[in-house]
Amino acid sequence: MLRSDFLKLIGSQPGTSDYIPVAVLLRNGYGVAGYYNTPVNEEFAQTCLLVNARLIDLQHKTDERRGIHDFGDFLQEISTRLVQQDDASEEAELDSTGLLGKSIPLTAVPYEEIAVVYPVSRISALMRRVEEDEHRLPTFLDFENRSVIVKLLKAKIW
Q: Of 35, 50, 110, 150, which residue has the fewest beta carbons closer than 10 angstroms?
């Protein structure tokens, strides 16, 4: 992964010092979730420093990880936790239960080791926007909102 692509994907802005939540899948099968801070990473071109990161081995199945079997489950757990928390009352945490492992204060990950990047902050913002919307999200087989898939199926039947 290129540093410039990584920064575009997570929505990092030059000069800001926000802690941007990010989840990545490494080439070795580990999932990592942490916070990206722009000023901390300014001097690094080939290494990404994540603050308060959590590392989980997704290749080996264990009973300690209740409900987390793959990278999709890992992402869902992180995104759900961030969306459920009210940013006004408390700082958003990736995991307050310890289900995702212990927090590592500072983690260095080479950009070339990152296989998949998931911009948690952008996804969380989109999910909040959907929750605020009064209309339901249309599904593939939504009969009330007349989805495109249902129209195609009806056309094939007739």
A: 110
